[in-house]
Amino acid sequence: MRIDIITVLPELIESPLNHSIIKRAQKKGLVSINLHHLRDYTTDKHRTVDDYAFGPDAGMVLKIEPIYKAIEKLKSKRNYDEIIYTSPDGEPYTQRLANTLSTKENILILCGHYKGVDHRVREHLITREISIGDYVLSGGELAAAIIVDSVVRLVPGVLSDETSALTDSFQDGLLAPPAYTRPADFNGWEVPEILLSGNFKEIEKWQMEQAIERTKRLRPNLLKDE
Ligand code: SAH
Fold first, then answer.
1. Which residue's C-alpha comes closest to atom 22 of ligand 1?
2. Pair 110, 203 in one domain
3. Considering 152, 176, 208, which residue would you say is the last residue of a domain?
4. Which of 39, 57, 126, 157 is the residue whose CA sits 20 to 30 A from 180?
5. Which residue, by CA, sits nearest to atom 16 of ligand 1?
6. How many helices (H) and strands (E) in the chain?
C-alpha cells in the first residue's frame, strides 16, 4: 500500500508515523508513506500557499493552484483509489472505514489548514471527505496521522498474531474485553480468577460476556448500528 500526504506542515505528521508498529510496517516494505510539502508546488518567490478568504470573515484559506498542481502531479504517476480531504464536516471516521481503506492500493490525503481549502478543491479534486470527530483541529495533519495509523495496522502482515486486530474494539461491533498481565495479585488487587484457570474455552466465553456487557453499558449505540 502507498499513502501520499499533501501538507503545509510535514513535521507534524512525520513523528507520529515513525514509531513502533507503523515504523516497522514501512521498514518491512508493507506500506510506503510519502509526505509532500504544499509549498513545493508554488510558483511565486514567497512560496505562498494561502490567501484571504473572499467575504467579511477573517482568516486565511489554502489556495487552489498549488493543491491542484500537487494532486495532478501525483495523479500522473499512479491511480489513486481515494483522494481524501480531512474536514470537520466530512464523513465520521470509524473502524469500518479504516477496514475499507486498508484494502486500497494508493491513497492520497490532503490536509487543510487555517480556515480550510478553497472550496473548489473539495468540489472538483477530492473523492472522499473524512472527519475524525465533532471538534475542530488547527490543521488536518493530526487527523491524517490518525487515519494512517488506524489503516496501516490493518494491512496484512503489519500486526503479529499477538497484537491481532481481530480482537480489538469495534472490529466485531463490540468493545474489547479487559486485559491483564502479571502479577496476578498486586497489592491485593486481583486478576479475575478465570484468566488463571488455563481453560481457554471458558476464558473465551468470559471474554465474550465481558465484551457484550461493556458494549451494552458504555456504547449501546454500537449494538443498535448493526
Ligand atoms: N473552518 C473549518 C475548520 C478549519 S480547521 C470549519 O469550520 O469547518 C483547519 C483544518 O483542520 C481543516 O481544513 C481540516 O483539514 C482540519 N480539521 C479540523 N478539524 C478536523 C476534524 N475534526 N477532522 C478532520 N480534519 C479536521
1. 88
2. no
3. 152
4. 157
5. 140
6. 8, 9
Q: What are phi and psi of 92, to 5 degrees?
A: -60, 130
Query: Quick one: pLDDT at residue 163?
Result: 67
Q: Which residues line ligand 1 (CB under 6 A)?
A: 86-89, 111-113, 115-116, 131-133, 135-140, 143
Picking from 152, 178, 202, the residue at the C-terminal end of a domain is 152
Coil, helix or strand at residue 52: strand
Task: Measure 125 CA to ligand 1 centroid, in angstroms.
Answer: 17
Specify the residue with its C-alpha closest to ligand 1, atom 5: 138
pLDDT at 132: 98
CA distance 95 to 93: 7
Confirm if 6 and 38 have CB atoms less than 8 A apart.
yes
Residue with cell 494561502: 50
Q: Do the domain assignments include residue 142?
A: yes
Q: Which residues of the chain have pLDDT under 50?
A: none
